């Protein structure tokens, strides 16, 4: 198959490219700065020669959008919104104009669309969309608006011959350097991986292997469209999440951090505390209903597997390859 991945140079794109290329598929990455074979220049906003790659492709997986690993200043939040909405819009325009459009368009979204809550999990049917929760920073609502507008841009695209799926993804855990697991493991190894602000907030996650398998599953299942949660079925409180990670590494100590300590740490890392403090209790309702079986459903086992990969050499797990039929 020919698979086009706009914005495929980040962590998630690297995971998918590695797995899909290993399975023998033709993978084309659309990027602002092409440097490798199989990469094509685009700007994420305007139609151009890159749109020729869409015609005749089988699958489009749009991952484009400014990284959330930054301070949530008004300028950065606007850049997040514009990059996501504009890229989804122009991908939709390219698909609409294609003489032979792809049969499926997977559009990255985020589990952040759901409300900050502790009382119950959020699935696609009964989950509460965020934006109006009391007692949380006001800018968290803007993050929800980004997610909603991101999905709306895909929904609005006039692509009747292409099935559309919005991937409401939790944090993708892989052993690759620079990813979220790498950052969390570094904290744990330093003895700093204790609970943050009490640690009651839920963490939703998905192992890289299951992320790839879920993408494959959604490509193959012509009956699935619309929002789909890509998250393991076992979200857990932050304190338990970090305890399991420390256990996997063999670090008995994890110093806790207060909210203001988290603010200082996020400032030093040029990140934002929403990534740590928002309770994302998300479960994969539609995937489970459709019969998808997770290989890594529980975090302690997933953390142990990722730690094993780190110890033997990052990001080259021979099992983390695509199972899609070669074409």
TrEMBL record:
Domain (DUF1731): residue spans on this chain: 272-306
Listed InterPro entries: DUF1731 (IPR013549), Epimerase_deHydtase (IPR001509), NAD(P)-bd_dom_sf (IPR036291), SDR39U1 (IPR010099)
Superkingdom classification of source: Bacteria
PANTHER family in the cross-refs: EPIMERASE FAMILY PROTEIN SDR39U1, SUGAR NUCLEOTIDE EPIMERASE RELATED
Entry similarity comment: Belongs to the NAD(P)-dependent epimerase/dehydratase family. SDR39U1 subfamily.
Database matches in NCBIfam families: yfcH
Descriptive protein name: TIGR01777 family oxidoreductase
Organism: Streptomyces longisporus
Lineage: Bacteria, Bacillati, Actinomycetota, Actinomycetes, Kitasatosporales
């Amino acid at each position: 198959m020919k698979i086009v991945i706009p914005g495929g140079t980040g962590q998630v794109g690297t995971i998918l490219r590695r797995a899909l290329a290993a399975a023998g598929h033709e993978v084309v990455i659309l990027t602002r700065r092409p440097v490798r074979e199989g990469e094509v220049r685009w700007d994420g906003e305007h139609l151009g020669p890159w749109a020729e790659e869409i015609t005749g492709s089988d699958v489009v997986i749009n991952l484009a959008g400014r990284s959330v690993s930054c301070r949530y200043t008004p300028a950065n939040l606007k850049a997040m919104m514009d990059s996501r909405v504009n890229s989804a819009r122009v991908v939709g325009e390219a698909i609409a104009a294609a003489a032979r459009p792809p049969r499926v368009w997977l559009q990255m979204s985020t589990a952040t669309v759901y409300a900050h809550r502790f009382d119950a999990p959020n699935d696609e049917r009964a989950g509460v969309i965020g934006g109006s929760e009391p007692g949380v920073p006001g800018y968290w609502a803007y993050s929800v608006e980004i997610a909603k507008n991101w999905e709306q841009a895909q929904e609005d695209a006039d692509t009747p011959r292409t099935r559309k799926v919005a991937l409401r993804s939790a944090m993708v855990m892989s052993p690759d350097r620079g990813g979220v697991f790498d950052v969390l493991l570094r904290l744990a190894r330093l003895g700093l991986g204790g609970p943050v602000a009490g640690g009651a907030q839920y963490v939703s996650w998905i192992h890289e292997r299951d992320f790839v398998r879920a993408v494959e599953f959604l490509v193959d299942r012509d009956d699935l469209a619309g929002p789909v949660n890509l998250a393991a079925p076992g979200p857990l409180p932050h304190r338990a999440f970090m305890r399991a990670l420390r256990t996997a590494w063999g670090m008995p100590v994890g110093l806790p951090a207060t909210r203001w300590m988290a603010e200082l740490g996020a400032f030093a890392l040029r990140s934002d505390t929403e990534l740590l403090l928002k309770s994302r209790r998300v479960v994969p309702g539609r995937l489970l209903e459709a019969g998808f079986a997770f290989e890594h459903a529980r975090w302690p086992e997933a953390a142990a597997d990722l730690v094993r990969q780190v110890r033997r050499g990052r990001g080259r797990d021979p099992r983390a390859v695509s199972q899609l039929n070669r074409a």
